[in-house]
Amino acid sequence: MMSNDCRLIYLITIFMANFTLAAINFNEHTIQSYGGDQDGTGSTVVENGGAALHLTGNVWKCIQYPYTITNNTVLEFDFQSSVQAEEHAIGMDEDLTIQQGNRFKLYGTQSDSGTSIIIDYKNYAIDAPKTRHYVIPIGQYYTGTMQYLFFSNDHDVVSPTGESVYSNVVLSEGENPPSVVTNPQPSHVATDVSFFPSLNLGWTAGSGADSHDVYFGTNPSPSSSEFVGNQTATVFSPSSLAWNTTYYWRIDAVNQYGTTNGPVWSFTTAESLVGIIDDFDYELNDPGLIAHWSDGNVNSTGSSISQYLAFYMNVAFDNTQLPYYSEVQYTFDSVQDWDVTDVDLSFWYLGDSNADEIYVRLSDSSATSNTFRISDSVVTQSADWIQVRIPLNSFTGLDLARITEIALGIGPESPSGPGGSGAVRFDEIRIVEHQCESGLSHLDLNSDCTVDMGDVMALAEHWLLQEQTVTASLPNDGQLLIHYAFDETGSTANVSDSSGNRNNATVESAGYDPTPNWQSDGFDGSGCICFDSQFWVKIPQTAFTGIDKEITISFWHYADSDEWPQFLTPFEFTTSFSGMDDSLNWEPARPQAVSIRWNHYAFVKNSVTGRMWIYENGVLMTEAINAFGSMEDMDLSSCRIGVGADGQSSKYLGKMDDFRVYSYALTQSEIVYLAGGGTFVVQPLVPLEIPADPQPNGRIDLGDFVAIAFEWLSEL
Fold this sequence. Notes:
By secondary structure, the chain is mainly beta.
């Protein structure tokens, strides 16, 4: 057992190793008016335990902060703004009379012409509305004494809405250990992380850091055995990673004055390989598409590339003239290592009645190439989007570890004569885990392309299973993007976000001032919102910035078939991407909705595993597979609760409470917690996530094993 004396020494050591400068605590200062009549109408709120000063409207504020500025003095702080005003600036002064030459403008619409305001750091626009960290060597601009530190949020309009959040403000002399690193990429506790063809770990350096000590491994408490090395770059690429494995990493900031330990971050790799070659999610008119892909303008074939708002690659082909085939090519910026067993080259394809053949050609660094051709008209002329999968081992004679180019073609590469013309579409080109040929029995439970003892073993652990108990566990609120408790009252039209991300929403309506219907009988006895078709809740566009591959939407609703019969229509959970929809529909049972007035629902998607789920009161009700569409191109201009995306259709009638959005796919245990606050649920077999119920009777029994055995013997 550690003695008290030793423990004290240990704590002191840890404290010094993690030493950081103390930021200004605004709770310990009087917030004063600054600049005379410049300080107008608005609000000033101290947040985050005193670390942040939140200004809204047309306000200029200051705190008394005597300080002697030397050549080495550095001002360090974080800044965030969701609404641009005319000026957002920070500065120092000896009195309360407004000055220009001693304030630093960060953001704003007002012209700086004819002023002496310092604009060297007027660069927030490139990050808006995210938080940006500033380190300003103010001693290089002027020296001397100051009495006040002031903050401007200048917005001289009739109804000022400008916003500034100044936080973690530090004045120092620079001769200190660096600040702690932040912003891990991938995010802390991220799951389903793909490392194909490679994985770059990234972070934001703390101020004053000259270099970084990198620790990486499978030890939750990184030690010297996990030390990788010291580097100046803020990117590290680990090698020899394994699937379905949790890795831990720590970045320590280093300078000549000391080392500041970073937090221990972790991520878990995906269960199998899914690597994106191109998802075509370019913005409209983004030159990136043409920069990557070359068409007939370069290769002199009959192809022409264009792009639509739906985010796919449209390839017009004209094989009526020489060379009688059309091709587009993608030359990679660096050599690609695809030398992985049991993987497929996958893409989504929409055909044309004149497309008699399509092909895929791969080339390696030695200019060796191999072509895979598809002449089945069911594929080449498909009028619907279909997924095409080609086993990579079909491309024989290539060095799959040195791939340099992929080409997609319409028509034979060596045509015998003229062909047709038209247009086909490609999307979501990936490297994915191999799947067997179509038509293989659904009894291949372990996906090894054979029905055998392995499938028996995959089912054996579920013998006589009819249901299972799922115990609640806490979700990771570090990945909570939005939390609307709906506890507002009166005529309040602002909806507060309790997640800490300041994704506050507003109540809106069509053409007139909304009158929100706040009620006091929420699911937990607190407030809730009651939609009456006359208003909706508008979520800010920035709220979903972190959504890409995974999402969870959780909420409570009050179902009453007598008062709101419209509510008992089917649930539809849809995410759109590249002109296609991943959808999941489910109709709740009317008797249950009547007897349980408040119900909890969760909608979950994981586009890495291709799964979507709908849960009612913690119980999985339905699921979908092959939902691989990314959500990074969501239309953020139409994020509404209580009405359709057009602001007119699908108006919701009923009560809603505790609306949450997470940036990851919650487990069923975590959803049970949200639905019950620390209980458990009994999950029936169907749709329980087990390999299969071969004889679908809602029970795993001898009949299921007989079905596998029959299929097994028939293949011998």
